[in-house]
C-alpha cells in the first residue's frame, strides 16, 4: 500500500501551533515549549493528548545517552487521547475515539517487515519523537497537547481500559507482550523469569499471569518482593545478588524476559534456564555483554533481542489487556513535576510508571 | 594405593597422550575394562583430529585431567559384543563420537538427547561412572556401551567419514533444531575449518544458498569449486561486508578463536539466527542493539544425541557427504597440532591409527 504524498512546500507552511515541554540540551531539563505541528493529512488523525507515560527511553534520549538526540526534544511515546480531527481518507477512527500512539509513527510500508505487520523492525521505522518525518521535519512526542499521526500507527483503546493506566501499554506493554508470544513463553506449561521490576517488568508479570504462565521475578531489590507477590501476582521472587537462591533456581526456567537496561551480567541468568531455554533482552545498553559460548552450548540455550511490536500486534495486545484487566501500576503526576519524576526514575524510585496528566495540568504551565 | 593407568583395568592398551599443558603427545601405556554385557569393543581404524583435542591437550578450558588421550571421531571394527548387545555383531564397522555415557533415565535421555543429560560423560578427559578416567581414540581400541556406538553406513568411507562423528553432528543438529533446512534460504558459514567445510556441504544438501564468511581470501576458490559454496565473503573487505548486510537467514559460526559478533549479526536479516559453535577460552562480546533492533538471536548447540547422530550419518551417506581430510600417521600428530593451531589444514586431519599406531 503506498502512502499518499503530502509533502508539498505549500502544505509544509501550514502548521498548527502546539504546546508541550522540551529539553534544550543534554542536561535533559524539561521546560515549556511552543512548536508547530503539521495540519492533519488525508490519512491522519489529530489526537488531543490526555495522558502520556514516562518511559526510561525518554530519560536516555533527554540525556543524549545514545548520541542521536536532536534538541529541542519533546519526548513521550506512551500517548493516549481522543481523536479531535480526522483526514478525509481515515477509516479506522471517528471523532472522539479513544486512541493510543506508541513508539513509531511511520515506516516504509513496502519491505518484508512492513508487509508482515512488523513495522517495528522496518529499517526505516520512524520514531514518535526524535525521529524524522518524511517531509524532513523532526517529530515531537507526547509531552504535548496534541499529536498528528497516520491512522496506521494509532490503536483503539477499548472503553473497559482506564486511560491513565493504559498509557504505559503503548511501549512497556507491547515490549513484553510481543516476545512472550513470539518466543513461545506464554501459557500454563511455561515457567518464566522476569528480570527487573520497573515499568516493563511489572507489566510483564501481569501479562504473564493473564497468559497463565508461572512467573518468577528476578530482582536486585529485596524490598520489591512483597509487591511482586501480592500486588502483581508473581509466583516467586529471586534476589539476583543472593548466590544461594540463584543456584537453587538453576535450570528451572523455560525463558527469561530481561528488562534491565543498566549494565549487568547475563551469565547467571543463562544458568537459570532449562535446556533449550531462551533469554530475551529488552533493555537498551550500548556496552556489550560478555557472552560465554559454553553457557549457550551446554543445554542448547539462546539469547535474543526484541523491540516493541508491530501495529497489528499492538492492537491485539491492547485488546487482550482490556479483556483480561491488565493495567499498569501508575503514579500520576502533573506536567510541572516532570523534572523531579526524571530524577526519581533515574534512581528507580517509582512503582512502577509515571504518567503525566496532560489534559489537566499542561495548559496551566503556559505563561 | 591409587592404581596406575596401566593397571586400573584388566586389559593393556597402547595410545598417545599429552602429559601437561605443553600439549606434547607421546606414547602412553594404559588399560581398558573388560567388555561388559552391554559393551562393544572397537578396534580403531581411524580417528579424526578435532579442535577440541587441541583445546584439551593445552588445557585452554582449565579442566584437563592429564594424562589426556584425545580423540572422539573414531571409526573401527567391532571385535567383541556383550551378550545384551543387539544392534551390533563382531565384524561390523562402527563409529564412536563425542560421548560414551549418560544417565539413560532423565528427560533428556528419554528424548534421545543424551548430549544434554546433566550426567553425560565425554569419550575422553571425563570420569566414567566407575570413577575411572576415560581415554579417547588416539589408541588401539575402545570399549563402549552399545547405546553410544553408531552403525557406519556402507557407502561412507572410514577415513573421510570419521570427522562426521563430531564435526558433522555439531553442524547438522543445530541446522535441524533451529529450522535451517528450508530450501532457498540463505545460510552463512563463518570459519572454514573442520566444522565449517562440513556445514557448507550439509547446507547445500538441504537446498540452501550458502555463503562462506572468512578472513582468508585464499580459501575462496576451493570454497566454491570444491566445497560447493555459492559465494564467499571476506570479513576484512568493508565494502563487501556492507553490501551483505541483512541478507542471511542464518549463520553457523564455527570460528574457534575470540572474534567480533557485531559484524556477523549485521549480516542477518530481521529474525535471523546465529548459532555459535566455536568454544574460545575467553567470552565473546554480545552487542545488544543488533539483537533488539532486528529480533535476532544467538544460540548454542552441543553435538547431538545418539539417534540424531545416526540420522546424520545416514543423511551424509545418502548425499555423499564426507570430510575433506589429510591422512596422517600417529607420530606426525604433534606437527599436525601445530598446523591446526594456525588453521593450516584442508580441512581435517585424520590419524591412520590401524596402520601407524605401533605399540612398543
TrEMBL record, chain A:
Domain Enoyl reductase (ER), chain residue ranges per copy: 28-356
Q: Which cofactor does it need?
A: Zn(2+)
CDD domains, sorted: CAD1
Q: Does the keyword Manganese apply?
A: no
Q: Which Pfam families match?
A: ADH_N (PF08240), ADH_zinc_N (PF00107)
Tell me the GO molecular function terms.
cinnamyl-alcohol dehydrogenase activity; zinc ion binding
Q: Which GO terms describe its biological process?
A: lignin biosynthetic process
Q: What residue stretch is flagged as signal peptide?
A: none
Question: Which reaction does this enzyme catalyse, per its entry?
Answer: (E)-cinnamyl alcohol + NADP(+) = (E)-cinnamaldehyde + NADPH + H(+)
Identify the pathway.
Answer: Aromatic compound metabolism; phenylpropanoid biosynthesis
Q: Which PROSITE patterns match?
A: ADH_ZINC
Keywords assigned by UniProt, alphabetized: Lignin biosynthesis, Metal-binding, NADP, Oxidoreductase, Zinc
Enzyme Commission (EC) number = 1.1.1.195
Q: Which domain of life is it from?
A: Eukaryota
The entry describes its oligomerization and partners as:
Homodimer.
The UniProt similarity line reads:
Belongs to the zinc-containing alcohol dehydrogenase family.
Protein name, per record: cinnamyl-alcohol dehydrogenase
The protein's organism comes out as Capsella rubella
UniProtKB/TrEMBL annotation, chain B:
A single GO molecular function, which one? cinnamyl-alcohol dehydrogenase activity
Q: Which InterPro entries match?
A: ADH-like_C (IPR013149), ADH-like_N (IPR013154), ADH_Zn_CS (IPR002328), CAD-like (IPR047109), ER (IPR020843), GroES-like_sf (IPR011032), NAD(P)-bd_dom_sf (IPR036291)
Instruction: Give the pathway annotation.
Output: Aromatic compound metabolism; phenylpropanoid biosynthesis
A Gene Ontology BP annotation from the UniProt entry: lignin biosynthetic process
Q: Per the UniProt record, which EC number(s) apply here?
A: 1.1.1.195
The cofactors it requires, by name, are:
Zn(2+)
Q: Does the keyword Transmembrane helix apply?
A: no
Q: Which residues form the Enoyl reductase (ER) domain?
A: 23-351
Q: Its domain of life?
A: Eukaryota
Residues in a coiled coil are none
Q: What class of enzyme is it?
A: oxidoreductase
UniProt keyword Cell division, yes or no: no
Catalyses: (E)-cinnamyl alcohol + NADP(+) = (E)-cinnamaldehyde + NADPH + H(+)
Q: Which UniProt keywords apply?
A: Lignin biosynthesis, Metal-binding, NADP, Oxidoreductase, Zinc
Cite the record's note on assembly: Homodimer.
Q: Spell out the PANTHER family in the cross-references.
A: ALDEHYDE REDUCTASE
Tell me the protein family, please.
Belongs to the zinc-containing alcohol dehydrogenase family.
| The protein, known as | cinnamyl-alcohol dehydrogenase
Source organism: Capsella rubella
Give the source lineage, highest ranks first: Eukaryota, Viridiplantae, Streptophyta, Embryophyta, Tracheophyta
Amino acid at each position: 500500500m503506498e502512502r499518499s504524498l503530502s509533502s508539498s512546500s505549500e502544505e509544509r507552511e501550514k502548521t498548527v501551533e502546539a504546546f508541550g515541554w522540551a529539553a534544550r540540551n543534554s542536561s535533559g531539563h524539561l521546560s515549556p515549549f511552543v512548536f508547530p505541528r503539521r495540519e492533519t493529512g488525508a490519512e491522519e488523525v489529530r489526537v488531543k493528548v490526555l495522558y502520556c507515560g514516562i518511559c526510561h527511553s525518554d530519560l536516555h534520549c533527554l540525556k543524549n545517552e545514545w548520541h542521536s538526540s536532536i534538541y529541542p526534544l519533546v519526548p513521550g511515546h506512551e500517548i493516549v487521547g481522543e481523536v479531535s480531527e480526522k483526514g478525509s481518507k481515515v477509516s479506522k477512527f471517528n471523532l472522539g475515539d479513544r486512541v493510543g500512539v506508541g513508539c513509531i509513527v511511520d515506516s516504509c510500508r513496502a519491505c518484508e517487515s512492513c508487509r508482515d505487520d512488523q513495522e517495528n523492525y522496518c529499517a526505516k521505522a520512524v520514531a514518535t519523537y526524535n525521529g524524522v518525518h518524511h517531509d524532513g521535519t523532526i517529530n515531537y512526542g507526547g509531552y504535548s497537547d496534541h499529536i498528528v499521526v497516520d491512522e496506521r500507527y494509532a490503536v483503539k483503546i477499548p472503553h473497559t481500559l482506564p486511560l491513565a493506566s493504559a498509557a504505559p501499554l503503548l511501549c512497556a506493554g507491547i515490549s513484553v507482550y510481543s516476545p512472550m508470544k513470539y518466543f513461545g513463553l506464554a501459557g500454563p506449561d511455561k515457567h518464566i523469569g522476569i528480570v527487573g521490576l520497573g515499568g516493563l517488568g511489572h507489566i510483564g508479570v501481569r501479562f504473564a499471569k493473564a497468559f497463565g504462565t508461572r512467573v518468577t521475578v528476578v530482582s536486585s531489590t529485596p524490598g520489591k518482593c512483597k509487591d511482586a507477590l501480592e500486588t502483581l501476582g508473581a509466583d516467586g521472587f529471586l534476589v539476583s545478588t543472593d548466590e544461594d537462591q540463584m543456584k537453587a533456581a538453576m535450570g528451572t526456567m523455560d525463558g527469561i524476559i530481561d528488562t534491565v537496561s543498566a549494565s549487568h551480567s547475563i551469565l547467571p541468568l543463562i544458568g537459570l534456564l532449562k535446556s533449550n531455554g531462551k533469554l530475551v533482552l529488552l533493555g537498551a545498553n550500548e556496552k556489550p555483554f560478555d557472552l560465554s559460548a559454553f553457557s549457550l552450548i551446554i543445554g542448547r540455550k539462546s539469547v535474543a533481542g526484541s523491540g516493541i511490536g508491530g501495529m497489528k500486534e499492538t492492537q491485539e495486545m491492547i485488546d487482550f489487556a482490556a479483556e483480561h484487566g491488565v493495567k499498569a501500576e501508575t503514579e500520576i503526576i502533573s506536567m510541572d513535576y516532570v523534572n523531579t519524576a526524571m530524577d526519581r526514575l533515574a534512581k528507580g524510585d517509582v512503582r512502577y510508571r509515571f504518567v503525566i496528566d496532560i489534559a489537566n495540568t499542561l495548559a496551566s504551565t503556559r505563561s | 594405593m591409587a592404581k596406575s593407568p596401566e593397571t586400573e583395568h584388566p586389559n593393556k592398551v597402547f595410545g598417545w597422550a599429552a602429559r601437561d599443558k605443553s600439549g606434547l603427545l607421546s606414547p602412553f601405556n594404559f588399560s581398558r575394562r573388560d567388555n561388559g554385557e552391554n559393551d562393544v569393543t572397537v578396534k580403531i581404524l581411524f580417528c579424526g583430529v578435532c579442535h577440541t583435542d587441541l583445546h584439551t591437550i593445552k588445557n585452554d578450558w582449565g579442566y584437563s585431567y592429564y594424562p589426556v588421550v584425545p580423540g572422539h571421531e573414531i571409526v573401527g571394527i567391532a571385535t567383541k559384543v556383550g551378550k545384551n548387545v543387539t544392534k551390533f555383531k563382531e565384524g561390523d564397522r562402527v563409529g564412536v563420537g563425542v560421548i560414551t555415557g549418560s544417565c539413560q533415565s532423565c528427560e533428556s535421555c528419554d528424548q534421545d538427547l543424551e548430549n544434554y543429560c546433566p550426567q553425560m560423560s565425554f569419550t575422553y578427559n571425563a570420569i566414567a561412572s566407575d570413577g575411572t578416567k576415560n581415554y579417547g581414540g588416539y589408541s588401539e581400541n575402545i570399549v563402549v556401551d552399545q547405546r553410544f556406538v553408531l552403525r557406519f553406513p556402507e557407502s561412507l568411507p572410514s577415513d573421510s567419514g570419521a570427522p562426521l562423528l563430531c564435526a558433522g553432528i555439531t553442524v547438522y543438529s543445530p541446522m535441524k533444531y533451529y529450522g535451517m533446512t528450508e530450501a532457498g534460504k540463505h545460510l552463512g558459514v563463518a570459519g572454514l575449518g573442520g566444522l565449517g567445510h562440513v556445514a557448507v556441504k550439509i547446507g547445500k544438501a538441504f537446498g540452501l544458498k550458502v555463503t562462506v564468511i572468512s578472513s582468508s581470501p585464499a580459501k575462496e576458490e576451493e570454497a566454491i569449486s570444491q566445497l560447493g559454496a555459492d559465494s564467499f565473503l571476506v570479513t576484512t573487505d568493508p565494502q563487501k561486508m556492507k553490501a551483505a548486510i541483512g541478507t542471511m537467514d542464518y549463520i553457523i559460526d564455527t570460528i574457534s578463536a575470540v572474534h567480533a559478533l557485531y559484524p556477523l549479526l549485521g549480516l542477518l536479516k530481521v529474525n535471523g539466527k546465529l548459532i555459535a559453535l566455536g568454544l574460545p577460552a575467553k567470552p565473546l562480546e554480545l552487542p545488544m542493539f543488533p539483537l533488539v533492533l532486528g529480533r535476532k538471536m544467538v544460540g548454542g548447540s552441543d553435538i547431538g544425541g545418539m539417534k540424531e547422530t545416526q540420522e546424520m550419518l545416514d543423511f551424509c551417506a545418502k548425499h555423499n557427504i564426507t570430510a575433506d581430510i589429510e591422512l596422517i600417521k600417529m607420530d606426525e600428530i604433534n606437527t599436525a597440532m601445530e598446523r591446526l593451531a594456525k588453521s593450516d589444514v584442508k580441512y581435517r586431519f585424520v590419524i591412520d591409527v590401524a596402520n601407524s599406531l605401533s605399540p612398543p
